[in-house]
Each structure stands twice: as structure tokens, then as C-alpha cells.
Specification:
Elements (H helix, E strand, L loop, with lengths): L8 H11 L5 E11 L4 H13 L2 E5 L2 E5 L6 E4 L5 E6 L4 H9 L3 E7 L6 H12 L2 H14 L5 H6 L1 E10 L4 E9 L1 H17 L11 H5 L11 E3 L3
Parallel strand pairs: 1-6
Antiparallel strand pairs: 1-7, 2-3, 4-5, 5-6, 7-8, 8-9
Helix pairs in contact: 1-3, 2-4, 2-5
């Protein structure tokens, strides 16, 4: 069972939750926003992904590349704030196909709308594709990026939005609010192990969190709330 942390328990469970409300969902959109900092490890992972993967979405079952900022939109989250979100290569581009069978998937992150944003990312991709330069940047990250403090993690939150649609235009939408990402990962990982040890039926094969434990698994994490309407 992969992805038993913030990536991908909240998004995977919410994706499965909205997908099961439609007979034949064809389109899935997932977006998340974080209230808290990022660690050096997360930053360095992003520095590896940007030049190697770029921005991709899933269309008709296949991963398709697109430019940074293409498909950006505004999403209302459960805290009442309308946020600008942009597509990113998130784990659900792979896992949600297994969890829901939906062939068209876009994953977004809340990202400030900045002038020249779509032009800056190709430049960053080109620069970071030079391995020695990327290593210099990662060394600086290791030195200066310490990650969120205990206080920030205590106050932080993660917000998730999911929307599924079928070919007729019917939609199902839901929102989720939970712990700060790193705290969530620690708690969810332990809970997943507990569920495996206590399972009334044996689990077999390669599973996503929602396939292994059901769409409501995320609600077992303390401090998590799911909304059907805002």
C-alpha cells in the first residue's frame, strides 16, 4: 500500500468518495492547499521533479505534458477562500486511475497568480536540468531550509477539494480539512499499520489507501473533516 501519508491519503480518499457518487465518472479534478512550511526534503524532491517530469495531466488514460500554468483556475476551499490553483504532477495522476478508473485526471496545488509565472517555469526547468547547477541549489536548500517548526506544524492545516464529472455533465464535489501535512503523514502511516494488523479480511496485491481501507479511512485521522457542501 503506497502513499499512506499526506501524499496521497487525503486526495485518494476524497477522489474515491466523489467518484462513487456517479455511475460512470469520466473526469476527476483534485486540488490542495497547505497552511504551513515545507521541509528541505520536500523542496529537493520538487527540484528533481521539475526538470525530469515537468507538468503533466492524464487524458484518456495517458499522461500528457503541458506548460506550467496551463489549465489554472480558481477553487473555493473549505476555509471560504477562493484560491488560484495550477496543475502539478501529483501522485494521484497514477493512483486515482486504480482507485476510481477515471481516465481524465488533473491535480492542482494552490499557487499565487504572479506576472510571468508561465514564462518563469520553463526557464527554471532548463536551468535545473543541468545537474551540477541543480546540486548547488539542493546543497543550499539542505543548508538553509529547515522545515516548519513545531509551532507551525501545530497550527498548520491542509485543505483538499475534489470534483468528479460524467459525460452528461453530472458532478459530485467534496472538500476536506485536516492536519498539517507532515503531522498528517506521521499519524496516517501509523493508522494504516494498525488497520492492516486489525484487518478482518486479508489484504492482497498493490492497493491505494482508499482501496485498502475505504474512502472514509481519512476520517479516522484526528482533526479531519469532510464537507459535501460549503
Amino acid at each position: 500500500i503506497s502513499g499512506v501519508g499526506f501524499d496521497i491519503v487525503p486526495t485518494d480518499c476524497l477522489a474515491a468518495y466523489v467518484a462513487q457518487q456517479l455511475d460512470e465518472p469520466q473526469v476527476l479534478e483534485l486540488a490542495f492547499a497547505t497552511k504551513g512550511g515545507v521541509s528541505g526534503g520536500t523542496t529537493n524532491s520538487m527540484l528533481e521533479i521539475i526538470p525530469k517530469v515537468g507538468i503533466v495531466v492524464r487524458r484518456n488514460g495517458r499522461l500528457v505534458a503541458q506548460r506550467f500554468g496551463q489549465g489554472a483556475k480558481n477553487v473555493l476551499f473549505s476555509d471560504g477562500k477562493l484560491r488560484h490553483v495550477v496543475p502539478i504532477p501529483w501522485g494521484d495522476l497514477s493512483s486515482s486511475v486504480k482507485s476510481t478508473g477515471i481516465p481524465n485526471v488533473t491535480t492542482y496545488i494552490a499557487y499565487p497568480k504572479l506576472p510571468g509565472m508561465s514564462l518563469g517555469m520553463p526557464v527554471a526547468q532548463a536551468l535545473l536540468s543541468v545537474k551540477p547547477l541543480r546540486r548547488v541549489v539542493q546543497t543550499a536548500v539542505n543548508r538553509f531550509v529547515g522545515g516548519p517548526s513545531d509551532e507551525v506544524r501545530e497550527r498548520g492545516k491542509t485543505l483538499v477539494w475534489a470534483k468528479a464529472a460524467d459525460a452528461e455533465g453530472n458532478t459530485a464535489e467534496a472538500w476536506l480539512e485536516s492536519l498539517e501535512g507532515y503531522t498528517f503523514t506521521a499519524v496516517a502511516g501509523v493508522r494504516a499499520v494498525e488497520r492492516i494488523l486489525d484487518a478482518s479480511r486479508p489484504l492482497a496485491g498493490a492497493l491505494t489507501p482508499s482501496l485498502a481501507f475505504g474512502p472514509d479511512f481519512v476520517l479516522e485521522i484526528t482533526g479531519t473533516t469532510r464537507y459535501d457542501v460549503l
